[in-house]
Amino acid sequence: MEPRPSYAGIVFWRRSLWNGLRCVPVLMTLDEGRLRAGDRRGAEVFAAPAGQVEARGTIFGTMLLTVGGHRYALVGAGATVSPSPSREQLRRLDELTARAEPVPDLASWWEALARAGVMVR
Q: The domain containing residue 29 runs over which residues?
């Protein structure tokens, strides 16, 4: 069996539609068939096998992921008041992209997710 490619990139989790301070960077990875996201402190936001994740887009360019019954609204960039990725997230991203394909923006995630078995609508 051919190994699946790994992917890693920073996206922003829109925790509130109205409060830009609640739009936070997450390090999203797709590795060995599992999709994961970690916050600025390294805490896990979600993790699940790709086949158990659903993704759909909105007319505003937001990716809505449903993972374990919870919905996560992801965007490519935070609001001007959103925090930047942490040093730890950037360090981890550099570490991961030494063996994973970097995903430069939210739009680039769609194809990778579909290939991994995420139900994309």
A: 7-120
Residue 14 lies in a domain: yes
Count of structural domains, the chain: 1
Q: What letter does residue 90 receive in the DSSP assignment? A: H
CATH number for the domain that contains residue 64: 2.30.29
What pTM does this model have?
A: 0.91
pLDDT at 35: 97
**93 with 27: CB under 8 angstroms?**
yes
In three state form, how does the secondary structure of 12-41 look?
A: EEECCCCCHHHEEEEEEEEECCEEEEECCC
2 pLDDT band (50/70/90 cuts)?
low
